[in-house]
């Protein structure tokens, strides 16, 4: 990594001090090949930190103008590739809000279960990778054992492990089976033990505590003023969670099953502890939801003319065949109101929102995304100032920046 000495000259023309510019990443292990930081150093102390994005450019907002509301789900999958099904749910939540569609009770519960599984999966990677970046390999392995179980559940439902593309306008690609219910029930019961293993490894680990406590402090006022959300904001004392404040899916019926986890620490340790406790709350939601999944269809009725008919309807009824042709072959996909609106879900990293501009066609005229990682990466320079180079992995890991959410 190149070092460049920069002489600072005062008004009298004398050398005041020497600062150095250090390129941190994108090849550094802690930046995971997708993030770059330009650090200005006074010895080991960081005077200034400038994030440099653009190393995982996908153009996902522009693609939203070229794909219809179902096709675009394959793109939102890849925004936060750590918990992709949560992105799908947030996207179609906004589209259904635009079209005035009320999804079925069964679909609400299944989506809720998948959203909470995605939250746990995302938090597990965040905590595991943060520990790994600070030298703790075992916690990383423990976390990934549980993530594999989540992937098995996602694969059972959608047929794909990593980018499921499972939601559709008005419902889901397909209904879940009894094996899915069994897998979810078993995961909800066994997760507490795996969670306790990570707690024993890290919560009283002197090295981990020393590397995170009092490091990267974000005050409550700063979190509010910079539009932070999710665990980053709640670790600074901001009591806001869309699942409670603006309930959607099955959350109105599951309010008593979970609580909003907050802290006043505002540092890396507080963000870690909030995520750890949030996973237990998510497990409670999953356990309550899986035992109360309603019967019935997962997709809204065919007479809405907006949902993809299932294969049996396409092959065995003229109505289903015509609707399939209208949605795909004749490009008469959706008739939308000419309207602008915003919809958001509480994902693992915070508020994931989509601002849709509809022009009456089957595609979005504009699909603006509010990704939490983009907001949180913006606060990194502020909370990094005055810390040492060795604190960069701790602070970066506690913010859980997903690079694919940064670029447009």
UniProtKB/TrEMBL annotation:
EC number(s) of the enzyme?
7.1.1.-
List the membrane topology term(s).
Peripheral membrane protein
- Give a GO cellular-component term: plasma membrane
Q: Which Pfam families match?
A: Complex1_49kDa
Domain of life, per the record?
Answer: Bacteria
Among SUPFAM superfamilies, the record links this protein to: HydB/Nqo4-like
Reaction(s) the record says it catalyses: a quinone + NADH + 5 H(+)(in) = a quinol + NAD(+) + 4 H(+)(out)
Q: Name one GO molecular function term.
A: quinone binding
Its subcellular locations are: Cell membrane
Concerning its family, UniProt says:
Belongs to the complex I 49 kDa subunit family.
Any idea what this protein is called?
A: NADH-quinone oxidoreductase subunit D
What organism does the record attribute this protein to? Fimbriiglobus ruber
């Amino acid at each position: 990594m190149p070092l460049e000495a920069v002489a600072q000259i005062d008004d009298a023309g004398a050398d005041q001090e020497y600062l150095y510019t250090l390129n941190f990443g994108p090849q550094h292990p802690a930046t995971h090949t997708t993030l770059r930081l330009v650090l200005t150093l006074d010895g080991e102390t960081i005077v200034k930190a400038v994030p440099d994005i653009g190393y995982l450019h996908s153009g996902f907002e522009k693609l939203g103008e070229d794909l219809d509301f179902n096709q675009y789900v394959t793109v939102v999958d890849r925004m936060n590739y750590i918990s992709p099904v949560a992105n799908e749910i947030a996207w179609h939540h906004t589209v259904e809000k635009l079209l005035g569609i009320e999804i079925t009770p069964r679909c609400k519960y299944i989506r809720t279960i998948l959203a909470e599984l995605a939250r746990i999966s995302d938090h597990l990677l965040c905590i595991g990778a943060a520990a790994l970046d600070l030298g703790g390999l075992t916690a990383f392995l423990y976390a990934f054992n549980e993530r594999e179980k989540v992937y098995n559940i996602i694969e059972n439902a959608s047929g794909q492990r990593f980018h499921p593309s499972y939601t559709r306008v008005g419902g889901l690609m397909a209904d879940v089976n009894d094996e899915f219910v069994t897998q979810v029930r078993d995961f909800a019961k066994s997760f507490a033990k795996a969670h306790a293993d990570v707690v024993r490894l890290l919560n009283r680990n002197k090295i981990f505590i020393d590397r995170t406590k009092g490091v990267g402090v974000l005050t409550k006022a700063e979190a509010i003023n910079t539009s932070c959300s999710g665990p980053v904001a709640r670790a600074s004392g901001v009591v806001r969670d869309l699942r409670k404040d603006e309930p959607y899916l099955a959350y109105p019926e599951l309010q008593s099953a979970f609580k909003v986890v907050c802290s006043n620490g505002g540092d890396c340790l507080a963000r870690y502890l909030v995520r750890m406790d949030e996973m237990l709350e998510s497990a409670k939601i999953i356990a309550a939801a899986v035992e109360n999944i309603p019967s019935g269809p997962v997709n809204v009725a065919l007479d809405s003319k907006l949902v993809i008919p299932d294969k049996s309807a396409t092959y065995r009824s003229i109505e289903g065949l015509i609707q399939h042709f209208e949605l795909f072959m004749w490009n008469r996909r959706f008739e939308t109101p000419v309207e602008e609106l915003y919809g958001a879900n509480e994902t693992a990293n915070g508020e994931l929102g989509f601002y849709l501009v509809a022009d009456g066609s089957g595609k979005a005229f504009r699909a603006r995304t509010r990704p939490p990682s983009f907001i949180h990466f913006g606060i990194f320079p502020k909370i990094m100032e005055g810390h040492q180079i060795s604190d960069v992995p701790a602070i970066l890991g506690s913010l859980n920046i997903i690079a694919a959410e940064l670029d447009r």
